[in-house]
Amino acid sequence: SYTGLDTARSSVTVAAGQRAVRNFDLSSGVYKLDTFTVSGAREGSAAAITAQRNAENVKNVVSMDQFGNLPNMSAGELAMRLPGVAGNLDDEGNVSGLTVRGFGPTQNRVTIDGSLVAGNGGANRQFQTHALTGGIFDQLEVIKGHTPDQSADSLGGTINLKTRSPLSMAEKRRFSYSAGMRFAPSFSQQIPLRKDHPSHPLLNFSYQEVFDVLGGQRNLGIAISTFYSENVAGYFRTIRDYENTTNTPAYVWDFRTQDAFNNRKQEAFNLKADYRLSPQTKFSFGVIVSDANEPFNRLYETRAFTNQTAPNATTSGVIPGYTDRLTSVRPVATSIIDVTETMFSFYGRTRQINFEGEHKFDRLSLDYTVNGSSQHSHLGVGGGGSFTNRITGIGWTLDRTKSDLYPSFIQTAGPDITDPLNYRPNGAITARNSKRNTETLEYRANAKYSLPTEFPLAVKAGADYRMQKFFENGGAQRWNYTGTTALPSDPSIVTWSSLKTGLKIPQWEGAQFIKDYKPVNTALWSEDNYYREQQYFTGTRGVTEFVTSGYGMVQGKFHGLGFIAGVRGEKTEDDAWGYTKAKIGTTAAQQVADPLGSAIKDYASNYRDRVGSYTKTFPSAHLTYDLTSNVKAHVSWSQSFARAAFSNLLPTESFNDTAQTLTINNQSLKPQLATNWDATLEYYFEPVGQLSAGWFQKTIKDFIVSGTISGTVPTGANNGYNGDFGGYTILTSSNAGTAYVQGWELTYQQQFTSLPGLLKTLALSANYTAITTHGDFGGSSTLTGDQVVGFIPRTANLSLSWRYRRLSTRLLWNYQSDYIRAYSAATVGRNQYYLARKVINLGFNYELRRGLGLFSDVSNLTNEPQSYYRGIRDQRERTLIGGTTITIGLEGKF
């Protein structure tokens, strides 16, 4: 049986000692609807539902093409449409991480075919999902109930990307392609920088073929996928900071506007080869090559701010008499306007090589995997770096009466803020130039033995060894301005704020002054040589982690009851190294006279190499029961965890001579541990229909708490700190605290082929998730959901598709509720909340002929912004407008 297809039955006669093959080419009347054949998207949906239906644990499965052409074919864009999953957006609107059942991106694992993929999120263990296109994968699954044969290092759930297996293809050869152009329509709100670069390509090509080799039949399958895109982002953002109060009115003491532009170029290549040596032996080999390059990421910011002194009649920055829409500032020395330009680059390379073998010997099955993955990033400058020009003693009035998003900014005193000659460089031009790397190497082996019982029963055991490494090399530089006059501005830079408000603030381009890490005019700029040498030490550090694990489990099925039970054990060893600053450093005069020698004296002798380890066991039990042929129940109990971020393990030292304390990191931090209960009830119906309700509960312990006392520094030259800090109290991080998370996940999916007329091609998919939480989270007081930073209490998705003859359409709606981003019990008015967001995508496809179609997709149809507020909704702290984009192109297969 197979979802969406009619069940087929056949008797097969097997002679003693022989092998019999019987292929079932299933078909169904529901695949024939009037004058057309249902597209591959429905086939992918049926395959995903079938995989989920047959799963022995709690998981959600989705086909990569189930929701049409998502922005940049991002795996994150797809995963956020599953129950219990929410997308975390970066400033450009990319889904850079995933929150699963309330737990953020750093606490969830991303794998490819079950193997860990090297992260690109720095020292926080996060894999940024937008860095790897979903166009080279077949399915995505979110595993929420971990079985013993899987690593359980995900508090919320594991996101697993599955590559295509060419041997399962019915035909001999298949080509598919998509060639499109994404552009920013002129009729929507787009910043000038984006309007100047309106159109960029999106290309995807795949080839699969099955060969007969070495006397076999259809025993070698090859799949190749290539992808290229230019995912251009241009956004406008406004930021304000209010008086620290939840009462109204509240004055605005800090007002900023930003224009940003970035072209994220992505290239990807995937090769997978499956070779079946015999009916009992199969080998697979896979290679993934992905590059994500951002050669020129630009940000232009204008900031007007003053002091936060209580408004008074003569000396404060803010003048008394302010309202909830009007703030006036007097021209004191601390009333400042800063104009900052930042240009940097990012070059990321992700590589993965995977080899797998499978062997079946009567009752014994063996499989093994060798997987290597690496991610190398160069965080460069892309131009001049970060550069600020300043003007002081400015009076102004900020009037939000007519428009909160585009308020009137009126100068009332001080030098003319529209004249670039009145500005002076403030501080140095700083250029980043560092390299960040993560690498993983993994070996896995499993053995499964089917016992000679009347019902299916097997025991399974296996071992896993993984090395994961994070290291980075610092190399930032900065140059101080040695001139006395104003620097020339760049009048070609036009900001969105200037168009909307009419205020013409001058802008500068740092690349005019610093290029290729060298001053254009050496008479005006002097490099801070000590800073350059210092950065080598402060930015050069790393962690190597070794994980050795093994498991044992029993698996079987008795009539309609399926079960898995077992335990997994893991030993984790960490070796972290880096440089810390000497207790007594060199003087400023020494640093100028001998920058290299001073940096060596301050840091080289303070090289630290720290080790730590811990061992944990993770039992689990999973039950499934077929109540009827169409109704299935899941109940599971399992343990999952999240390891400490690498940043919590890197050697750090900060001291307080007055308090006689030394604060360091703890390399033996244990993981945060969750005990999970899951229960789901699933009803499957034709054609390609599903209705499910799931409940889960998590008890989380061992939150990471900083500032706990961990002994005293010994005295003597060999105390581990070069003889310094003898007798100081050691403060470090430890594991403490408990929290509880509980939630409901509801899912409904159906294709309405039984409806009359034009409605019978209608299909609907929807889900809703509601989560609550409470606990101390390692602190001293009890917190609830609206106090837990990053916890998203409600998410929902809706997909509605319809087809008429050659035309098909799809509407996607995604919802995330309000949630808190920054919390302080002492200063409630400073709490920052993310405003609920509803995003609509719209897609069209038209079949020009069999195997060739025209597509058009609108992303963020209503130009829904990302918005935050402080304390109360009326105090909009920041709003980011990313713009609407349209993608048009051709797709086909043959």
Keyword list:
22-stranded antiparallel beta barrel; 53% strand; mainly beta; 7 helices; 47 strands; globular; five-stranded mixed β-sheet
Q: TL;DR?
A:
Helices cover 6% and strands 53% of the residues.
Architecture overview:
With 894 residues, this protein is mainly beta. It is built from seven helices and 47 strands. A hairpin with a 5-residue loop joins strand 4 (85-89) and strand 5 (95-100). Helix 5 (529-538) packs parallel to helix 7. Residues 30-39 have low confidence and may be disordered.
Largest sheet properties: 22 strands, antiparallel, barrel
Please tally the β strands and state the result: 47
Which bin fits the share of residues in helices? under 10%
Low-pLDDT residue intervals, each spanning 5 or more residues: 30-39
Query: Strand fraction band?
Result: over 45%
Oligomer: single chain
Question: What is the approximate shape?
Answer: globular
Mean pLDDT across all amino acids: 90
Helix/strand-derived category reads mainly beta
Instruction: Indicate the radius of gyration in whole angstroms.
Output: 30 Å
Number of helices: 7
| First-residue to last-residue Cα separation | 28 Å
Q: Strands, helices and their partners?
A:
Elements: E1 32-33, E2 36-37, H1 40-54, E3 59-63, H2 75-79, E4 85-89, E5 95-100, E6 110-112, E7 115-116, E8 139-143, E9 158-162, E10 173-183, H3 192-195, E11 199-211, E12 220-242, E13 252-278, E14 281-305, E15 326-329, E16 336-361, E17 364-392, E18 395-399, E19 408-413, E20 424-425, E21 428-431, E22 434-450, E23 457-473, E24 477-481, H4 496-501, E25 514-515, E26 518-519, E27 525-527, H5 529-538, E28 541-558, E29 561-579, H6 588-593, H7 595-603, E30 607-626, E31 631-642, E32 653-656, E33 661-664, E34 672-685, E35 689-712, E36 729-751, E37 763-775, E38 783-784, E39 794-804, E40 807-816, E41 819-822, E42 832-834, E43 837-849, E44 852-859, E45 866-870, E46 876-881, E47 885-893
Parallel strand pairs: 6-9, 33-36
Antiparallel strand pairs: 1-2, 3-8, 4-5, 6-7, 8-9, 10-11, 10-47, 11-12, 12-13, 12-46, 13-14, 14-16, 15-18, 16-17, 17-20, 17-22, 18-19, 21-24, 22-23, 23-28, 24-27, 25-26, 28-29, 29-30, 30-31, 31-34, 32-33, 34-35, 35-36, 36-37, 37-38, 37-39, 39-40, 40-43, 41-42, 42-45, 43-44, 44-47, 45-46
